[in-house]
Amino acid sequence: MSVTAPRGFRAAGVVAGLKDSGTRDLALVVNDGPSRAAAAVFTRNRVKAAPVLWSEQVLRGGRVRAVVLNSGGANACTGAPGFQDTHATAEKAAELLVDSAGEIAVCSTGLIGERLPMDALLPGMDKAVADLSRGDGGLAAADAIRTTDTVAKISFRQGEGGYMIGAMAKGAGMLAPSLATMLCVVTTDADLPAETLDRALRAATRVTFDRLDSDGCMSTNDTVLLMASGATGVVPAEDEFTALLTEVCADLNRQLLVDAEGASKAITIEVVGAASEDDAVTVGRSIARNNLLKCAVHGEDPNWGRVLSAIGTTDAVFEPDQLNVAINGIWVCRNGSFGDDRDKVDMRPRDVTITADLSAGPHSATVWTSDLTADYVHENSAYST
Amino acid sequence: MSVTAPRGFRAAGVVAGLKDSGTRDLALVVNDGPSRAAAAVFTRNRVKAAPVLWSEQVLRGGRVRAVVLNSGGANACTGAPGFQDTHATAEKAAELLVDSAGEIAVCSTGLIGERLPMDALLPGMDKAVADLSRGDGGLAAADAIRTTDTVAKISFRQGEGGYMIGAMAKGAGMLAPSLATMLCVVTTDADLPAETLDRALRAATRVTFDRLDSDGCMSTNDTVLLMASGATGVVPAEDEFTALLTEVCADLNRQLLVDAEGASKAITIEVVGAASEDDAVTVGRSIARNNLLKCAVHGEDPNWGRVLSAIGTTDAVFEPDQLNVAINGIWVCRNGSFGDDRDKVDMRPRDVTITADLSAGPHSATVWTSDLTADYVHENSAYST
Fold it and tell me: What are the binding positions for substrate in this chain (chains A, B) (predicted)?
């Protein structure tokens, strides 16, 4: 299952010894073809980890034979030696697969600013190649890329004509910004060229991972990679493929949201009545990043004033006295002032929906975030020590 | 002392009954002249509280006879009725002082979205006017504007020729953005016209309150008001006055920083080597708003990778491999990679200084923030309930 649900893929997840915990920390996903078409989106952070700089180059060719992923170290801010480590990792995979390093993507996640223990990682590669399988490999790979994730995240769907899309992800964030590094590998046995995969992936991530904003922080390592084996020979219509891919990404997105570090609430922010989709996203992000509101949701306090305050910091089109806000369906703010009784809002469910109506047009967008908790503080104040 | 340190001012702080705690919640500062020249800066949030909308109009005239300040309610997002409440407050003060409501400024702080209990506030005004004094009034007023502030914040300085600047402040934030509403009243017995006061105040707040970024949230109520009585007849040089005013604002800024909600660390972020001052401020704010970094500082973890990650999200001029970062004087990151041993960094003091060198030019700026703690979460998840 997971990335090995589609035909033409093998995967493995092994213990290379990168993590002190002694759990799986090295994953490998291999595309046995016949196609090797691939596309990817990367973090927009200008400080990019070595594996991102490497994989960006690989993806320029539109072909990927395999991807190596490690947890236990981000290999970010490690200078030229760190880039050499990524290069050596790709070379090792290429050697074992008797292929070209130029078609080996690399992803890393973990602490920034430390070299990877290559004396553990390279021998781990031998183990990973030996373990490659279609059966358990997909789940083992999904397990190996976890850092603070409490569960492995996988998804798969079948498309028209019998092709499959499979995927695994780790992290509790998004492409930009992100709570922690988000890595995602999506595979398919449909037969589509790299350009189509690229368009489909950008369309799917734009409305899913790109709108999951756990804590406003953007990782140096975020990567979403899509690989097509073409093993079924099915050539789906681009629209149909994009819709199915978006479904898979939305499924993983939900899993990331629910497992966000320290979160006790999954918050869905629907912005409606916007003059443009950009305005809706801008307002949604501003609400999602408001620490005071995130604390209020944690305390099960329907504090709509903090929603208005967050909207007010944006340059979106709206009039303050025409803003409406609903929390879990109760319109607690109408026309910029108090509306229905806030005591009617049931804040107890894990899922909290905030609807902000800008009364400025027909556009809308949804952004997801989680609450700000003492557990989040605890987890992130003790991470590297 | 406080706002009554300069001649020509009386003040009071009384219990009007706006706060459940039964502590002081209504302050009044009166300028007895001979001058009434005044200037102010307000929140840049587009959702502005009624007292901000009112006071902006008052300040257009450049003259302020008195300012009424209340804690126990922000009077924000209260619609036309809320604006009427502010108007009635100014009218009541004008009536008691036998003056014009058009020269009465109003400031409010507390929960957003609820009407003020005017049946308590208006009788409180009688009490405040009866209590006006030069002696204890300044401290009582500073006490009355507190919300979550654990201590009253006051400052005063003497200028050349014997004039004074006095001030009081509340909040743990800044003009934009802000942890909670920041209110500040500054008084002087120097004789300067409104235009000069305006320039001086903008210059002073630009490098002090405007660069204190507790939690990235911008209040609907922030106000800094400067009133001149001219009672000494001293006309200071604009440069000298601006420098002294900046000193007073910096002193209060430091008090706000140290008393920020739930904070255990006071973080000074110095950005140097920037291509422009704007770049330096942009980078400083991005670092100051990074929740992951703020958690790391709380955990006394010199996690410089999170500093680089925050810098990377900006559009400032820099090359990733030329960034240097020092934490408490130890250059833990050189040329975008690890530098001196992070174990050398002593994170135990309450004050933590992060220096980010962009290696891109001669400009610099300082931004202040505090750490993110479980206490912050606790305080803000229980605020309105």
Answer: 147, 170, 181, 261, 380, 385
Q: Quick check: B135 pLDDT over 80? A: yes
| d(C-alpha A148, C-alpha A376), whole Å | 11
* Radius of gyration from C-alpha coordinates of chain A: 21
- Tell me the C-alpha distance between A3 and A223, whole Å: 15
- Report the C-alpha gap between A17 and A23 in whole angstroms: 8
Structure tokens at B132: 């006006």
| Tally of CA atoms within 13 A in the half-sphere of B269 that contains its CB | 32
CA A224, CA A208: separation in Å to the nearest integer?
Answer: 12
B42 close contact with A: CB closer than 8 A: no
CB contact under 8 A, A48 and B215: no
Chain B interface test: which of A44, A52, A56, A77 (most B C-beta within 10 Å): A77
Is B232 considered catalytic here? no
Contact in structure between A112 and A78 (CB atoms under 8 Å): no
Tens of pLDDT, residue by residue over B18-66, are 999 999 999 999 999 999 999 999 998 999 999 999 999 999 999 999 9
Q: How many structural domains comprise chain A?
A: 2
Q: Are residues A101 and A36 in the same domain?
A: yes
- Single-letter amino acid, residue B181: T
| A96 and A235 co-located in one domain | yes
Residue B216 has pLDDT above 80, yes or no: no
Task: Report the alpha-carbon distance of residue B68 to residue B227 in Å, rounded.
Answer: 13
CB contact under 8 A, B219 and A177: no
Residue that is last in its domain, among A215, A238, A258 = A258
Strand B266-274 relative to strand B351-357, pairing: parallel
Given a cut of 80, whether residue B256 has pLDDT beyond it is yes
Domain CATH number, residue A297: 3.10.20.340
The larger pLDDT score, comparing residue B376 to residue B116, is at B116
Nearest CA in chain B to A73: B305
User: What ipTM, to 2 d.p.?
Assistant: 0.88
Q: How far is A344 from chain B (nearest CA, A)?
A: 14
Residue ranges with strand state E in B275-346? 324-327, 330-334, 337-338
Residues B194 and B75 in one domain: yes
A335 and chain B: CB distance < 8 Å anywhere? yes
Closest CA to B373 of A311, A304, A373, A127: A373
φ, ψ of residue B199 to 5 degrees: the values are -60, -45
In contact, B15 and B24? CB cutoff 8 Å: yes
* Bridge partners of residue B66, in order along the sequence: B30, B104
Q: Which domain holds residue B297?
A: 266-381
Contact B256, B284 (CB under 8 A): no
A23 burial (CB, 10 Å; 0-12 / 13-18 / 19+) is middle
d(CA A123, CA B202): 62
| Cβ–Cβ < 8 Å for B265, B179 | no
CB < 8 Å from B in window 308-327 of A: 308-314, 318, 320-321, 323
Please list the ranges in chain A whose pLDDT falls under 50: 174-179, 383, 385
Q: Do residues B10 and B126 share a domain?
A: yes
pLDDT of residue B177: 41
* pLDDT tens digits for range B287-326: 998 888 999 999 999 999 999 999 999 999 999 999 999 9
Does the CB of A265 have a partner CB in chain B at under 8 Å?
no
The 3 state secondary structure assigned to A332-367 is EEECCEECCCHHHCCCCCCEEEEEEECCCCCEEEEE
Is A382 within 8 Å of chain B by CB? yes
Distance between CA atoms of residues B265 and B267, nearest Å: 6
Average pLDDT over chain B, rounded to whole?
A: 93
Cβ distance B373 to A373 less than 8 Å, yes or no, reads no
